[in-house]
Amino acid sequence: MVFCMLTGKTALITGGAKGIGRAIALKVAQSHGNVALMYRGSQKNAEDTVAELSDLGIEARSYQCDVSDFNATKTIVTQVVQDFGDLDILVNNAGITNDKLLIAMKEEDFDSVIATNLKGAFNMTKHAGTYLLKKRKGRIINISSISGLMGNVGQCNYAAAKAGLIGLTKSTAKEMAMRGVTCNAIAPGFIDTDMTKELKPEIKAEILKQIPLKRLGDADDIANLCVYLGSELAGYITGEVIKIDGGLYI
Ligand code: NDP
Fold this sequence. Notes:
- It is a single chain.
- By secondary structure, the protein is α/β, with parallel strands linked by helices.
- The chain has one domain (10-243): NAD(P)-binding Rossmann-like Domain (Rossmann fold), CATH 3.40.50.
- 48% of the residues lie in helices and 15% in strands.
- The protein is built from nine helices and seven strands.
- The chain has helices spanning 19-30, 43-54, 70-84, 107-135, 147-150, 156-176, 194-197, 201-210, 219-230; strands spanning 10-14, 34-39, 60-64, 89-92, 138-143, 181-188, 241-244.
- Helix 1 (19-30) packs across helix 9 (219-230) and helix 3 runs parallel beside helix 4 (107-135).
- The longest helix has 29 residues, at 107-135.
- The radius of gyration is 17 Å and the shape is globular.
- Bound molecules: NADPH dihydro-nicotinamide-adenine-dinucleotide phosphate (NDP).
- The site of NADPH dihydro-nicotinamide-adenine-dinucleotide phosphate (NDP) has 30 residues, from helix 1, strand 2, helix 4 and helix 7.
């Protein structure tokens, strides 16, 4: 289904070449928004995604950047604003897992997950937020996780990063509200992407038993809400954490 909720808007999506980020990029384009997608290593995916987005008649470009690199993210945000002439929506979607029990977790396992999932969002929010504040309008959407709300065995690094992202969301919402910029978080449950493909079948079966809607989520389930939160319709929503988890948290 095609909506025109984002006509004339430009969205910058981190990790936009695959998985949930790619679904968000496609949904933004189907809603007539322009897309700047950032990727770290998936160049072929990024090129294919840009080609598919461009076929929808919007402007799309890809940018290679590691979100944990403060200076590189600043350069990319400046480049995006120059290329597109504007920026309206930032989606902090890039994320990694490196699951281990706390007792077996190495310092670098913890640090790398925090650096991408939490510091990466800080970097992007600082640089893009500076532009949005000057413009006195904008939307920031952070992809957190149900793990950040519930904790999860084997994910102390990831859960800490995603819980931190919720703190970042609420603080950003309070700081930026007076300049017309909203900031919200989405907390997905188990979504069918490469990230969850690594789960062993018996673990997946156990998870499914706990999900009232009895299925893993689809990347589009997240993308749909992203488009809404990025649109004019969501102008009075800020500082929220919205779960999309098939009822897992109930
Ligand atoms: P994928 O592994 O499919 O995609 C992750 C994306 O993040 C890739 O595009 C990857 O880019 C990008 N990325 C990773 N590290 C970096 C980095 N340092 N700099 C820039 N980009 C980076 O995962 P999903 O699509 O499933 O996950 C998307 C988001 O949703 C993540 O934040 C994840 O934590 C969150 N989430 C996912 C859930 C799920 O069940 N799938 C549940 C809850 C939350 P590249 O491939 O180029 O490296």
